[in-house]
Amino acid sequence: MARAWLFPGQGAQQQGMGAHLFARFPDEVALAGEVIGIPLPRLCADVDGTYLTQTRHVQPAVFAVSALAAKAALLDTGPPDYAAGHSLGEYSALFAAGCLDFEAMLRLVVRRGELMGAATGGGMLAVLGLPLERVEAVLAQVPGVQLANHNLTDQLVLAGPSEALREVVEHVRRGGAGRCVPLAVSVAAHSAFMADAAREFAADLAGVRFAAPRFPVLSNVTARPHALGTLPELLRRHFVEPVRWWDTLCLLARAGVTEPEEIGPGEVLTKMWRRAGDTLPPPDPAPAARPVSGRGSAAVRDAYAVRHACLAGSLDHGVSSPELVRSLGSAGFFGFLGTRGLTEDQVRAALSAVRGAPRCGAAWNPDLDDAVMADLLIDNGVHCAEVRADRCSATPGLLRFRYSGEQRRVLVRVTTPASAQRFLRPPDAGLLRQLVDTGVLSPADAAAARAPLATEVAVEGEWVSGLPAIAALGAGVAVGAAGVGTPRAVDAAFALGADFVLTTSLNQATPEAATSTAAKDLLSLLDVGDTTAAPDPDQFGIGGRAEVARKGTLYAARAERLYRLYLRHGTLADLPAHHRDEVERTHFGRPLAEVCAGLPGPPGEELARAFAAYCRDATAAALLGTAGRRMDYRVPAGPDLGAFNGFTRGTALADWRERGAAAVAATLVGD
User: Fold this and answer.
1) What domains, with CATH codes, occur in the chain?
2) Among 285, 334, 611, 667, which is least packed by CB within 10 angstroms?
3) A single GO CC term, please (predicted)?
4) Would you tell me how many other CB atoms lie within 10 Å of the CB of residue 176?
5) Statement: residue 137 has pLDDT above 50
6) Given 66, 87, 314, 404, which residue is catalytic?
7) Cα angle at 259 between 254 and 261, to 5 degrees?
8) d(CA 582, CA 577)
9) Residue 524 catalytic?
10) For 386-434, how does the pLDDT look when each residue is reduced to its tens digit (9 = 90+)?
11) Which listed residue (171, 190, 226, 238) is catalytic?
């Protein structure tokens, strides 16, 4: 059974707290009085009620008492396996883990209390009895309100302008479930109202030399163990980002904690844990030993020149970057360069960057000219292309890549047996004759095209049922499982007869991935159930959907709102004025007419183009990490990423900055 210490934050203060500790630690008590400017016993007794209602006094008082309680516990029982603190309590946890001495950490807390106490504007609102998904749906309709604390599944705290918070109250009231409780606080903590304070605190943090935690301390921002290199940045973000307390409790439960010990004044966090009760997940089972070599089909390993038949699938918009695939190749793994969503010049530059590198393939970009795409791959020496069955067909360019001159490889990502069948047979004989007649293929090339277009098929989504179904088609093509996120998923795929496995979305949360730090931070917080199918910008008008993150962003809810309005009204002219006002306010921040003016196309389709443009802009905002648009981020992700996050909790790989793409692949196959 794992031991955990929980440290309370502001709100846990009570008159007389810590009195039993002062005689035991006289040196620290005297030092605290010098740093704070008020003797600690007088501050904590607060006989006149003048101190413990002011942020600038409360924070150092609660920290000092919690720090002394931690010193006593360390002496009496030894260190815990994990520690976490709620808001201010995180500083107490970091002190207990030896990241700073008592005086240095107290000075930081005093400064934090001064900055937060001086901040103005905004309010806070507790929403009780509603799950996060319902609250996010409300937030999608009320701009300016942020999640500040996610304490339990049905206990959340919001921050925002007073008028907007009243609008939230009205939405909840109309929904007929849950209740709202305005909080009598002087600061809107963990929200954009703290941005100025965060910038000032960053300057204070710049001069602090932290030590690595002696035991795992979970960050409020990520609900993952702090790493020394990112500690100052996470403490800065702590001012303006939500406290992920529910995620923290879940991690502790999975780690085997059954009853944490609260260190400091009060029992707020202990009661919260007990209230969570059966909603907390069970402990993770101990990992079994697994083989370390020769995994998967020998034919696939030979074809791709890899030790294990574990390949890294492409990520759109160049997220699977030249750096990512080169790092995989250097470590003995194979990766596909992401080309979909890039321009011709961008594809050419990316291919040039990996030319000659070992074990590198590239995705086929169906948006480029067919002949140009084939030329780009062939001229840059690419021997393996990755194709998505739902976005591509047996085009002349693809056939030329596959069969001309030499037998190149085409790995096709599919979701159903029906989508696989098109690629599991040789090309149409009439099309081959046409390609020979036009000089695209030679007669010898056409004769070689008796083999199926696909050399490998990777089954996405429900691969547990898809693998045997596609293998039963009997085409003699290697069949693999795409979207594996843990070593056990890899074991399961091979046990079901997979020839290979293909990693997908989990490679986004790696240092080499070409997406923003903000997107990677968001991805590293996901659990298995934190993704959903949402409108796809490239297939918006026909109802196309793709899996995206739904936690930490409101994109899924906002895009779904646009799609429902599109289904109901169809055209811009038919969109009622009140709905037009709504989406201009919550999605675009400008008139729809202005949006449509920059999107040429057939008349009558302006609404679909405008709504799809929101989805594309949301993708770009996530890739760039656009400040102020975090709630709009469209971040493609699948349950495999959440599974890997869960598997690596409490390890060095919990921090995406430590997750090199090759380390991810090696972890999955047991190297």
Assistant:
1) 4-118+192-279 (3.40.366.10), 123-182 (3.30.70.250), 302-514 (3.20.20.70), 531-636 (no CATH)
2) 285
3) cytosol
4) 6
5) yes
6) 87
7) 115
8) 9
9) no
10) 999 999 999 999 999 999 987 799 999 999 999 999 999 899 999 999 9
11) 190
